[in-house]
Amino acid sequence: MEVKKVSRRAFLHRSGxxxxxxxxxxxxxxxxxxxxxxxxxxPGAVAGKRIIILGAGLAGMTAxxxxxxxxxxxxxxxxxxxxxxxxxxxxxxxxxxxVSNPTQTxxxxxxxxxxxxxxxxxxxxxxxxxxxxxxxxxxxxxxNVNEGAYHFSEGNGALSNKKIRIREVHNDMRxxxxxxxxxxxxxxxxxxxxxxxDVSKIIEYLRAEGGLDADKLYKASARRGYVEAPxxxxxxxxxxxxxxxxxxxxxxLLAPDFYNVAEYxxxxxxxxxxxxxxxxxxxxxxxKKLPGIIKTQAVVxxxxxxxxxxxxxxAVKGVAQELTADACICTLPLPVLxxxxxxxxxxxxxxxxxxxxxxxxxxxxxxKRRFWEEDENIFGGITHTNNDLTQIFYPSNDYLGKKGVLIxxxxxxxxxxxxxxxxxxxxxxxxxxxxxxxxxxxKNEFETSFSVSWHLTPYSLGGWALYTGDTRQSLxxxxxxxxxxxxxxxEHTTYLNAWMAGAFESARKTVADVHARFTEQRLQYPSSGxxxx
Length: 533
Prior knowledge:
This protein is of the alpha/beta class and 533 residues long.
């Protein structure tokens, strides 16, 4: 039996046609690195093919950026008057109109900002960092974990209605739990088969982890901070007694909302980064690579698969327009797409209609003095509360500067729904009232605010997609392949929901799928080389 030799290029085209995965095939042949964190380089160039991309967020612009490198003619339609989608940094003059509130215009000072959308880049999101490098976007350290920030619990416990440093709660609890465990192991109270030597090693570990003394008892140490700092001369420093375990329990400080060990969560492990000057500098850098390609204020009303292509209807300032192309990449958030006329398959249509998005909101508060640094030695990090604020974020930039912007609340689900239903002024009053319980300086230092409820923001209608184990097996899979000539990209098509990495990863996958489609067509229908007549 004769074995036909197949070139790598032919294999790539054929595997792309079968699986829509030329990119995966290239990785299998070690033509690309196993982690796609380098310049994207697909073989072959395609001229004359037109692609419509819906949405000028990170996914849409990245898809356009990579496709134009390959020779495709792209048009990006964006409903907003700005690019970036949810990757948005609020600055002086930024505007926002929600479905139930009047237009607000940011009065932040020049040079001040806060990230209304994504604010953190994990060190292992290599593709996000790659695009920062390729696009020339400088980054800086983002301080996500700060043991000097606070837990604040409204309630009736002995420690309720008091701001408690995170390090006090963490270290007291480590001490009490390791003390109990060390005693249990030492007294053979646990059903664990260990040698005497192993028991000794475990107890030594627990003593180190919990800060236990020689008798395996927890006593306060410098780990939890000082009430009087050490200094020169006769100033050894003074350490307060630990909070009792009963007080910690009764005050609710061990509830999931509080005992947030962020450094243990994979996505939130240090080191983390942010784009200097605002996260939307990443989006702006992409925009510069796409001159004449993006149409803003283009509100899409219809997406239709037609024979050998796609037809999209949209309007710019009320003027109806229409585009046809060979394919379409749709990156629109699903709650937005659900309200657009389309002729998708039943599986895709159902997924579009039924995948929920989280309700979430933020408020930026500008203060004339960085009192959290000057008065309380808080440099970055997050304070956790059990009230409607949920979280207060301290800025990880411009340390020791004069003014600054806190994220006065970052809330989710029912709390975000409740706060989002308030007027803009009421949101500000809530943030100031509840925040003053922790920082009484709010009253004298506050200058201006700007709030965003993403579930009430047109062309977003939510923060990010939410999946369960069941919907990952059903609804999620509807976006893994194209619906005829329409492809899907965005964080909702990945396992990286809520992260910019989801936008970048999905864009690369979709570009590879589109390119496989059209390069395979060229392979199937080669020119005969004969002149027609």
